[in-house]
Amino acid sequence: MFYLRLKCHAHLSLTDPLSFKDIKEQFCEITITENEKRSASELKLMYSPKLQTSLTLKHVSGCCHISIETSERVWVSGKDNLIFTNSKGAISYCLKNFNEFCGMHSINKDKKLIYIDDEHNIITLANPMEKEMTYSSINSFEWKPKCLSYCPSTDDILVGMYNKSKEEGQVLRFSQSGEQTQTIQHDSEGNQLYVKPSYIVENNNFDVVVSITVWTTVNNSSEESSAIVATNFDGKHRFTYKGQDSKIVSRGLCVDALSNIILCDNKTSTVQMLNCNGVFMKHLLIRPPGILKPHGLGYDFKTHCLWVGSHSDKICVYRYLKRRDILTESNSSRSDVIESSEEFQIINTGKSEINEEMINLSVFEEVIEGITLMMSVHEAGNEDKMSEMEETNEDKMSEMEETNEDLMSVSDEEYALMSMPVVKNKVKVNWSDIELYRTVEHFYGSYHISCLTTDNICINEGKDIIHINKTGDTHLFQHYLPAFAFNGLHTMDKENELIYINSDYDIYRLSLKTETKVPLLQTNSSTWKPHCVYCSPFSRDLLVGMFRKDRKIGMVTRYSNSGKLKQSIICDKFGQELYNEPRYITENNNGDVVVSDSDWETGAVVVTDRGGQHRFTYTGNPPGSGLLPRGIFTDRVSHIIVCDSSSKKIHVIDENGRFLSYVFIDSKLMSEPSCLSYAFRNDLFLVGSYKGNKIGVSRYVTEKNEARTDLNNDGYDDVDVGMGTGH
Fold first, then answer.
1. How many other CB atoms are found less than 10 A from the CB of residue 558?
2. Taking the CB of residue 333, how many other CB atoms lie within 10 A of it?
3. Which of 317, 650, 300, 27 has the alpha carbon at shortest distance from 308?
4. What pLDDT does 681 receive?
5. Model pTM greater than 0.85?
6. Do 152 and 251 sit in the same domain of this protein?
7. Do 639 and 539 fall within a single domain?
8. Alpha-carbon distance 61 to 83, whole Å?
9. What is the mean pLDDT of the chain?
10. pLDDT tens digits, 32-62
11. What is the CATH number of the domain that holds 202?
């Protein structure tokens, strides 16, 4: 693309007579320039990033680093391979034997790939047939290269080195000819700057920015943490960033046109933005749908788009910088200012891909080995309108989304929740602190609790289920459940029969009186496995959280009481996956499906409405603080109560995702709450911990902190039965 630049057009007069010579002189000064990089002064942050396009890759597990050759072609490395792909996910080249989650490759000015191979040599790749050994001499017995980056300002190569035996790191700078010109290892006082460099990049102000990994031993277990270390061009230490409120576990790293430093925090599933002085600015992304757990980053300096790779096989491209509205800010026309057509080209291309792949189909149906997935998708016309509004006026975006949400709702007849109570005049109530603790005999930990009343309670420890009835009798059902523990593997129906997921991942109904087992659902799938289940006490529908291990994504399915599939929820309205690994699931009074979704490191509470449309994602207090949700339930006023294994607290949020309070736990009696259940007929909730055999009980209190009078005497008579001696 070429542009005309009229340098002296203002000299032409519209009133004085013009000669051919004057016109010729003016037009001789017209210059033709190729598409220029936009000045950083013309850019500013958008209120929130906008998704441009997304792609799912093959032959890569974990998109840990992205090097951008052009706006349409990128290199992506994962746990096993380094692949060359276009913006549609088509792979044209693959390098194998990549086994580290580090920034091990970069692109130079000649569009050549520079990478660290499996023998720790640095290779320049012009094309698949031309490999050139670049800096093999830096690979020694003690020091190994772990990450590298090309510096476009100087044509230098920055290499992060690691000495495993000494647990020390250093940064080497090489000229274009391969000569080592600098070593950065210590600060001015001789202190070690780096441990293990994982990612490295040069900022626009010539700072060298390095993400380092630190492993420490805590309680006989290894714990990972990270830091961002920046030095100036001369190697002088400028700052170290270790996190805003807590430690970070940094993954991807890049800088943008405004010299902002952008990093992925694996601990909180966020993409964070720092300014060039290491000061935290904002969470750019918090557990974004589709990505869920950001891992790799790449910044396109021509389109100013951010490429974000997931911990699995997904990449999403976002626009978070926009051009300043010079016409509005200066109140004058600037006809000589031409918008970069390349930026709009990729934006429009991304939107058209989304429209073609998702929106032109009113229903997306996929059959995977016996499971039918139905996803309701909004009409193409509505999305096209929203795309146009997005490009012309961002302020109207929220209004358009609200309109589309109404249009996208499925019919009430199809997903009606029978006998669902409507709470009109809500009473402002709170949950009391956990005051009563009861001990369950012959039991050592609680992973999940199921009950409708306190007359029948089922608790599981690992594969075993213990049933406690009204008279206090207990019965043990051994080896009924799968091996994994931190999941809602069972639920109680209206008849007080137990519905559970067995070791073969089929769903059964168990009569607690006769011990008769009846099969309800057989998945017949080697791809999707049920990981949690909940029986709605209102509609009697069965909600099942499913997990697909190979892609590390989840979905929610709704079945009727007879076992007929009624609904599947996988993606949001933009076609991006909502769930990572559903562990606990419940249903709110307003019909919302509430899922405690997490892996072993971080997670969120994901809430969709009864039509399957994404309402909100709760990621902790404050947002992005690293929630690790476990047991979850909703109460009679639609509060959502969830255990957080990270903070070891119980969070109470309202039906719209707003944090309300914590429920206090006596750490001496219960060190880490992990599971919850709501006896809605008694207005009590039970809490258990996998680290002990005590069950805690909480009740409603009014704003004046007065106990409700409709409970039996002290409010706890119903839960004394079968729980042993109180403490």
1. 21
2. 9
3. 317
4. 79
5. no
6. yes
7. yes
8. 11
9. 78
10. 444 445 566 689 999 999 999 999 988 888 8
11. 2.120.10.30
CA end-to-end span of the chain: 77
Edge-to-edge order in the sheet of strand 448-450 = 448-450, 457-461, 464-468, 474-477
115: its two tokens: 């990478």
Q: What is the pLDDT of residue 224?
A: 84
pLDDT in tens, 1-32: 444 444 444 445 545 555 655 655 555 555 44
Collapsed DSSP state (helix, strand, coil) of residue 146: strand
Question: What pLDDT, in 10s, does the model give residues 407-439?
Answer: 233 333 333 332 333 333 344 556 776 666 677
The whole-number pLDDT of residue 496 equals 87
d(CA 145, CA 136) in angstroms, rounded, equals 10
Q: What is the DSSP string of 497-566?
A: -EEEE-TTS-EEEE-TTT--EEEEE----SSEEEEEEEE-TTT--EEEEEEETTTTEEEEEEE-TTS-EE
Q: Do 366 and 511 share a structural domain? A: no
Beta strands per DSSP E along 117-259: 122-127, 130-133, 143-150, 157-163, 168-174, 180-184, 196-202, 208-218, 221-231, 237-241, 250-255
DSSP 85: E
The answer on 380 and 313 residing in a single domain is no
Where residue 97 falls (left for φ over 0; alpha for ψ -120 to 50; beta otherwise) is: left
Which pLDDT value is given to residue 419? 33
Contact, 371 vs 558, CB < 8 A? no
SS3 content of the chain, % helix, strand, coil (to 5): 10, 45, 45
Same domain, 376 and 249: no
Domain contains 424 = no
Residues 292, 232 share a domain: yes
Torsion-angle region of residue 52: left (phi > 0), alpha (psi -120 to 50) or beta? Answer: alpha
Chunked into runs of 10 residues, the chain (727 residues) has average pLDDT values of 44 54 55 50 90 90 92 89 88 76 91 89 77 63 91 94 93 91 95 95 97 78 87 96 88 95 94 97 95 95 95 94 67 39 32 33 33 33 43 43 35 33 43 70 84 89 88 86 86 92 93 91 84 92 94 94 91 95 96 94 94 96 93 93 93 96 85 89 87 83 46 38 38
**349 in any annotated domain:** no
Asked whether the beta carbons of 708 and 699 are under 8 A apart, the reply is yes
Tokens of 159: 């290499």
Residue 369 confidence (pLDDT): 36
Residues present in the chain in total: 727
Is 440 a member of any domain? no
Query: Can you give 422-472 as a three-state secondary structure string?
Result: CCCCCCCEEECCCCEEEECCCCCCCCEEECCCCCCEEEEECCEEEEECCCC
Range of the domain at 616: 447-452+479-684
Dist. CA 606–CA 586, nearest whole Å = 11
Helix axes 380-392, 341-354, angle to 10 degrees: 160
Tell me, rounded to whole angstroms, the distance of Cα 381 from its chain centroid. Answer: 29
Joined together, the tokens standing for residue 20 give 């051919």
Give the residue from 302, 324, 346 where a domain finishes.
Answer: 324
Strand runs (DSSP E) across 78-116, as ranges? 82-86, 91-95, 105-107, 113-116
Q: How many domains does the chain have?
A: 4
Same domain flag for 145 and 18: no
Q: For residue 65, is it within any domain? A: no
Which pLDDT belongs to residue 494?
87
